Amino acid sequence: MKKIIPILLCIVLFASCKSTSKIVTKKSNTLADQIIDTAIENIGVPYKMAGTTKAGFDCSGLVYNTFGQFDIKLPRTSYDQAKTGIDLGKNTSKAQKGDLIFFKTNNSSRINHVGIITEANDDEIKFIHSSTSRGVIISSTKESYYQKSFTQLNRVLE
How many helices (H) and strands (E) in the chain? Predict the structure, then answer.
């Protein structure tokens, strides 16, 4: 019995020890980074027509909600959002994080899809958006579907 008590005390001591180390996460500095981080929190949220909440987003609802959290008022539809800010046309060399990217999908004659640029390189733009089939995801202009339907870029952040 005398040998069991010290062993039990050691077990209790070690079991009650708690690590004091903390995981440090880097806070984003720029408004564009903060907007992207906020949008990324919604990855996996399902697509919902006319959706503007975590219960479900359509593409423009995700953009509307995300920018709205930073008191940036945007129109509700992708078609109207494409009329906001500075139209950069198809000049991908000017694309920056936080810019909006627009598409005419499914042979539409007018803009009907929008995303937020998360990364812009010389030959590829990555963007977060809500797709009808997979919900909120990050896609690339290297994907043929988006490459074919890419229409314009807009800068809404200064």
Answer: 5, 8
113 catalytic per annotation: yes
Among residues 40, 42, 97, 102, which one has the least CA distance to residue 77?
102
Pairing between strand 135-140 and 125-131? Answer: antiparallel
* Known catalytic residue at 129: yes
Strand, helix or coil for residue 49: coil
Beta bridge partners of 56: 53
156 is catalytic: no
Alpha carbon separation from 7 to 12, 18, 71, 112 (Å, rounded): 9, 19, 59, 69
List the alpha helices (DSSP H) in the chain: 4-16, 31-40, 59-68, 78-81, 144-149
From 81, 115, 117, 129, active-site residue: 129
pLDDT digits (tens, 9 = 90+) for 3-29: 555 554 444 444 443 333 334 445 558
Residue in 42, 67, 113, 139 annotated catalytic:
113
